[in-house]
Amino acid sequence: MKANTATDKATDSVPTLKTGAQCVIDGLVKAGCEVLFGYPGGAVLDIFNALYDAPFQFVLARHEQGAVHMADGYARATGKPGCCLVTSGPGATNTVTGLATACMDGIPLVCVCGQVALNMIGNDAFQEADVIGITRPVTKHNFLVRDVDELPDIIARAFYIATTGKPGPVVIDLPKNIQKQKTASVPPETVTMRAYHPDVPVNPPEIAQFAELINHASRPLLYVGGGVIAGNASDELAALAHTANIPVCTTLMGLGAFPEDDPLALRMVGMHGSVAANYAVDHCDLLISAGARFDDRVTGKVSAFASKAKIVHIDIDRSSIGKSVRTDLGVQGYLVPVLQAVLPFVKPAEHTEWLEQVNRWKERFPFVYPAPEGVLMPQFVIEQIYAVSKGRAVITTDVGQNQMWATQFYRYTRPRTFISSGGLGTMGFGLPASIGVQFGRKGEPVVCITGDGGVQMNFQELVVAVEHRLPIVVVILNNGYLGMVRQWQELFYSKRYSGVMLSQHGRLPNEHVEDAPAYLPDFVKMAEAHGARTCRVTNPGEVAAALSEAFAHPATWVIECIVSPEANVYPMIPPGQHVAEMINRTV
Amino acid sequence: MKHIINCLVENQPGVLARIVGLISGRGYNIETLNVGPTEDPTVSKMTIVVPGDAHVIAQVTHQLSKQVDVIEVVDMTNRRHLDRELLLVRVATQNHHARAEIVDLAALFMARVVAVQEESVTIQMVGNQETVADFLRLLRPYTIIDISRTGVIAVGREAVERPAKR
Ligand SMILES: Cc1ncc(C[n+]2csc(CCOP(=O)(O)OP(=O)(O)O)c2C)c(N)n1
């Protein structure tokens, strides 16, 4: 895999020699890097030295996990690859959760990790870790650089791999001595790899079959995932839906791929999805999966999923097709060319009866919640965020109830406006991701909806938002519990609340902090300590004013909402079950 | 059912670990695994025997094909192919009689005696998986002291439509 060395190329001029560290900076520039998130250390000092003169911005996170989530948020919000840089050993191992989060959701990232010098590898040297071994299952690919002459090529390949096919994170493990060595190698003009061919040509017989299935269906349904967003295929998707009047439900990752205010939108499907979407899956006679992967949080009981339907699965990842559910037709390819190819063969259709049926479900079963007089309900907070932001905010979420309410009570009408950890469900994602989002989408309102549990997992990153004057509004739904886990304990473990209590209420005497407020830590004081503007909201009447104040005074804000402690997310299809078992307690 | 999967990969450090980790990380079993060079020094061939139903094998082949360092994946099982395994087995020969029987048996399987000691013989045998299994079954009445098996390698008997990797 030895790269062309520039000595072959630049025979007639004196080759300019660059250090490995400089190659990293140049490689990032060439890849279009605007902002690099990271954290320094002994094994990357040379790169940080070269970074001093780099033409792009460096953002110092406060934990390497935060840095990776920032790069991830940036990538999700812009569609461009996120970039991060960390040191060897603990720096690199701290990235693992972030890489796994990005890998599960197919997010393009390139993460450069310092490594001990090549001759020290394997010696249990100071701050050595087998980063290639540790990150292998949580990356799309990783490289250990063994020769400085290969470095420019490896960087170009890393970006190519990260951004093509099903995107994903790529790690470059870069020994310290190579950062210092000099090379005449230059990056390749185009990347070609013998064993990696992300281009998938459209297959006409498959398209013909696909069109045939659409034209013969009487109750078709589009089931749309993050692939539509990753593949920038929203317009083609909308064209297909509108041509044949096909209702559309989305996965968590697909929120925003199809406008939720469109009459054909059924909103999210799955465990906490809308009744209409789940009923539609159960009743449709053709399920067209576009860029979704039949996650168990969507399918529930696989054998009963879409049992009356033929299933068409369009995916760039061949291994996704038929992995979880039976598939009648698999179409491997990028969504834009596949949908463009099928559209001319799709006959306009009304599907009047089917749409009437679907609309009856929509009217009868909207997302609702009980709202006792004067009680601050978490769902109400989300509705107010929607109202005050006029639906124009980019929303990031953490994981748990806050995430599910954010899907139900805000409406997503544009791609890349709902940013959330889907596949891995990583608590602590929301706050750092919102920082990356804001770097990618300057001037747009960004709201991070998070829980009192998850926000503590990466609270330290708040200072990054403050330093960079990012007008992010962090809304903490403080219910005093690890709410989603408490909900499962309430429903499936006879309310035996074990290890989920965050507030001081009802704690064992030996854990109770004397003379302390009920809610510890005091998030308002924490926000102040990080230099953010902040307020605490305890009743429904204050929410709109607090949000308006935050939007009117651009700054990093933390709004802590003390919400009803035992509110639940409904509807809920219990794990592994069929839509018939749906729990829907709305009063 | 067992499947024999041939896999051409970039001959680079770390590729073997990646393939093994991929298969075991998804909860599938590797029965035997062989790696060797090919006529092209930059390419290695792996022969992997994986037990599993059609769904498992489809997942394994698709997941393998997806790897950045995997050039080609072919499930040999449903194609015309030859597969062979090399067996070295040392069997105790308590008496002259037992030795004669074992040597006879080896001859029936076209196996060769490669070493003879006072109280044992060592036999080398090449065959496909079933033949090796049959031979070992017939050796069972004797005392087997040691066994080493290479695991299966396989080669197609007709051209493969390329590229198998899509
Ligand atoms: C890193 C991590 N650890 C544990 C979990 C399991 N988990 C899922 S939701 C949840 C509770 C989240 O509580 P909180 O952040 O307060 O949000 P809420 O559900 O109350 O909105 C937990 C512990 C997880 N998803 N991620």
Would you give an account of this structure?
The complex is a heterodimer of chains A (587) and B (166). Chain A has 587 residues and is of the alpha/beta class. In chain A, 34% of the residues lie in helices and 16% in strands. Chain B folds into 2 domains: 2-79, Alpha-Beta Plaits (2-Layer Sandwich), CATH 3.30.70.260; 82-153, ACT-like. Chain A, domain 2 (Alpha-Beta Plaits, 2-Layer Sandwich). Chain B is built from 4 helices and 9 strands. In chain B, strand 6 (112-116) and strand 7 form a beta hairpin. The radius of gyration of chain B is 19 Å and the shape is elongated. The mean pLDDT of chain B is 92. Classes of the chains: A alpha/beta (587), B alpha+beta (166). At the A-B interface, loops of A face helix 1 and helix 2 of B. The structure holds thiamine diphosphate.
SSE inventory with pairings:
The complex is a heterodimer of chains A (587) and B (166).
Chain A (H helix, E strand, L loop, with lengths): L5 H4 L8 E2 H11 L4 E4 L6 H7 L5 E4 L3 H15 L3 E5 L3 H4 L2 H10 L3 E7 L15 H5 L5 E4 L6 H13 L5 E7 H5 L1 E2 L20 H13 L3 E5 L1 H5 L3 H10 L4 E3 L14 E4 L6 H9 L2 E5 L5 H4 L10 E6 L13 E4 L2 H8 L9 H13 L13 H11 L5 E4 L3 H9 L8 E2 L10 H11 L5 E6 L10 H6 L4 E7 L4 H10 L30 H7 L3 E5 L5 H10 L4 E6 L25
Parallel strand pairs in A: 2-3, 2-4, 4-5, 5-7, 6-7, 9-10, 9-12, 10-11, 12-13, 13-14, 15-16, 15-17, 17-18, 18-20, 19-20
Antiparallel strand pairs in A: 1-8
Chain B lengths: L1 E9 L4 H11 L6 E6 L5 E9 L2 H13 L3 E6 L5 E12 L3 H13 L3 E5 L3 E8 L1 H11 L4 E6 L3 E4 L10
Bound molecules: thiamine diphosphate (TPP).
Thiamine diphosphate (TPP) binds next to helix 18 and helix 21 of chain A.
